[in-house]
Structures are given as structure tokens and as C-alpha cells.
Amino acid sequence: MPRIHREGYPFICVFIVITVLAGVVAKPLGWLGLALTVWCVVFFRDPKRTTISSPRVIVAPADGRVSCVQSVSPPPELGLSQKEFVRVSIFMNAFNCHVNRSPITGSIRKIKYRPGKFVNATLDKASEGNECNGIVIANNMCTIAVIQIAGFIARRIVSWVKEGQELAAGERFGMIRFGSRLDVYVPKDVYVLVSVGQTTVAGETIIATLEQSIDTESTYHTS
């Protein structure tokens, strides 16, 4: 039985009740309900992850597939400088783990929620028009932004952090229910190590480094 995040228990309970009722009506409906209940459990799984403890690396904030790597200006509402950043977009499908983790160790400088549309999160325009929640994290080496973006199906962005809070790299900060996307804005002078189509693991996959070589003597922590 996988570890389940507390956000999932109400949904799992609802699926169980529906499954029992459906099974009373017709056995095939009960089997269908059971399959959906198993999917719900898988969706809300919250496995432990081992994160490198190095101030020179930036790790993936989400499980999923890299859908975009490009130089862009960050959203103005985040209050970052208007120089170009590199945006790494990670799309989460309905079967990925949806717990989001901090890419770096640092302090939350700003949180900005923006209401918006719910277009397909794989589209580039989703970064500009969809409902989203932006978090700016900074330390003495770099400043980055992580943006949770709602999609066509995902209509609930969850964040349980606040401004001024300290986060460790790989620490959980939120989730998006039922598939969507995260954008990570990193300084343009970093060395991006991922490409479009690559699969990422939240808290473990290194998406960028501040130096060309990675410190092999860095320690790791599990969360």
C-alpha cells in the first residue's frame, strides 16, 4: 500500500462509497468503481524521495514530462527582474504523483495567486492565461520561481506554504489535483540539464546546475 497524502483521503472515501453502491446495482459497475478507486489511491500517493543537498543544483518540482525549455521573461506579477529566465515546463498526467516539491533550499519571498482560464495545460498559452499560483524562492546563490498551473481537468491548486517560510530542496509545498503543469523559472546563466520529452522525478531529477560540474561529495536527504 503506497503512502497516501492527506489531501486524498476524502476523495478515496467517496470513491469507495460509490464503488459499494455501484456494486449493489450491478457487478460490472462495482468492478469499474474498484478500478477508479485504485486509480484515486495511485493519484494521491506520496512516496519518499531522496534529494541532493547541494546549493548548486536545482531539482524538479514535479513528476512528469518536460514539455518546454525556453528563454522567456517571467510573469510581471512575481516581481522578478525583467531580464530573461529559462522556463522549464513539466506536464503531469493523471497517473503521475502530484505532490509538488521545492527545487532549491531557500526562503519564500513571494506567493501570487492569479485566477484565469482552464485550457489544456500542454499548450504554451496556458502559462499566460490559466489559473495559477506562483511562488518565488531565493537563497544567497540564486532566485527562482515555481508556478502551479491549472489545466482543463485540474481545477484545484493546493498550496500549504506562506511567504517568509524556509523550504529545503525536495520539501513538499503543494499539489494540483487531477493532472496539470508546473513551470520553473531559473536564471538564464545556469546549466539546464533536461530536454523536451524527458521524464522527471520530483525532488530527485536535477534539472539545472549553477556550475558545469556537480559536487559529487554532496550529501542527500530523504523526505
TL;DR of this structure?
With 223 residues, the chain is an alpha+beta fold. It has helices spanning 9-25, 27-43, 126-129; strands at 50-53, 57-59, 64-72, 85-92, 99-101, 106-114, 132-138, 143-149, 157-159, 166-167, 172-176, 180-187, 191-192, 199-200, 206-209, 219-222.
Write up this protein.
The longest helix has 17 residues, at 9-25. 35% of the residues are buried. The strands form 4 sheets. The protein has an 8-stranded antiparallel sheet, with no helix packed on it. Strands 2-15-13 form a 3-stranded antiparallel sheet, with no helix packed on it. The protein is α+β, with helices and mostly antiparallel strands and 223 residues long. It is elongated and about 60 Å long. The model has no long low-confidence stretch (mean pLDDT 86). It has 3 helices and 16 strands. Helix 1 runs antiparallel to helix 2 (27-43). It has 2 domains: 6-43; 50-214, Glucose Permease (Domain IIA) (Distorted Sandwich). 17% of the residues lie in helices and 36% in strands. It has helices spanning 9-25, 27-43, 126-129; strands at 50-53, 57-59, 64-72, 85-92, 99-101, 106-114, 132-138, 143-149, 157-159, 166-167, 172-176, 180-187, 191-192, 199-200, 206-209, 219-222.
Task: Name a few traits of the molecule.
223 residues; alpha+beta; Glucose Permease (Domain IIA); 2 domains; 16 strands; 17% helix
